[in-house]
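Data deposition worksheet. Section B asks for the primary sequence of the deposited chain exactly as it was used as input, without tags or linkers unless they were present during the calculation. Section C holds the resulting structure in token form. Section D is free text for depositor observations; keep each observation to a single sentence. Incomplete worksheets are returned to the depositor.
Section A, Depositor: J.P.
Section B:
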Amino acid sequence: MNTLKKYLKRYFITAMSAMAQGLFASLLIGTIFKALGMIPHLEVLAEIGGFAQAVAGPAMAAAIAFALKCDPLVVFSAAAVGYAANSIGGAGGPLAVFFIAIIAAELGQLVSKKTKVDIIVTPFVTLLVGGLLSVFVAPAIGTLVGYVSTFIGWAATQAPLITGLAVSVVMGIALTLPISSAAICAGLVLTGSALAQGSSEGLAIAGGAAVAGCCAQMVGFAVISYRDNGVGGLLSQGIGTSMLQMPNIIKKPVIWLPPIVASAVTGPLATCVFGMKMYGAAINSGMGTCGLLGPIGIVLGWLDPANGYTGEVGVKDWLGLVLICFILPALVSYLVYLPMRKLGFIKDGDMKLEK
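Section C:
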């Protein structure tokens, strides 16, 4: 059992979190640069953003290998593996990179520094394994992700209330758990962006619900734990991560209820009332209010015609964005928290953050 926990932590927490950081440092920041490049006389920023987006695969794979504490030659070789897996994987590129980079890095590490010609053997093994898996396995992963994404998109258009509720709650919980909701959203292509293969209006709706759920967790915990943590805790959770509450959740799971209820409320409102859709990078769907990147992704999707958003952005859209991402998560979480506190289910110190 301890061995299983060790490997689950290594691959689905450490590696997945690193993958999300690789995506952030390439695709996500590149998207922001491209948006800034729309400002007159700043066109060069759009060009820089394009370069950053182009290396998303190598950035993810190198980040994974680095997080797994692989030797330098394995990390550097993983970049080529990431490029291959992301390119051949199509709609499932990020997910293909995740699995293939892990396998290639682990096998490359097995031979690293074991021979006198390490500079040849280690990159050769890493790239051979990763390259073969990319050619023969990545397309299947891409096809599978395409099916899953198509189903999510179909469900979002056929039953936006149920889909909004499910996606919002599940992605919100994933954001607070020590796994990467951003990587999951990227892997499932939760965006309607025309830049994403297999995109659809339904995936844009699901992406909006994911933003709602993630924002609800971060803003919700930030507000209801203010009594325990003050302004520092408000900021560290509100624009940092609600994952900081995991030690407290393990001790007392009931404290998780207010943000989960907030996710369950804001998700359907996002899909059915305000029509909030994600046309920015899919990774933004799983970022919540971390650096305000969830709302920023929504706005960037509106601004760049290349993303495929064709609607008119009006007062309702901006009002929905503010309500769904900030005001309602705080309000709903607090309204659920108050009676729980009065009834003794939540007490002072239950959500105190470790220093």
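Section D:
The chain has two domains: 2-136, 150-342.
The chain has a mean pLDDT of 92.
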